[in-house]
Design goal:
The protein has one helix at residues 2-45, and strands at 56-62, 65-71. The chain is α+β, with helices and mostly antiparallel strands and 78 residues long. The protein has one domain.
Amino acid sequence: MKKAWKHALTLAVIGALAYPTVVQATDVTSTATTAIRQEQSAAKNYSLDFNAKAYTKEEQTLNGQKVAYRAYKRMVCS
């Protein structure tokens, strides 16, 4: 009777340790698949063409002198 009890307890412990590992592996695979799909979706939705006219004129002071420049912001979203 003691051997059967020890065997059952051993199997229960091994099963409890193994099950979360399988779930975590599935979650990692699912997360990786989702990330790949999001990258593919982003590649389909956004143009990588540079629009030289999509800028704003900005000015900053550096060492007491004003420096004017063109600021290109949110290039992927435009």
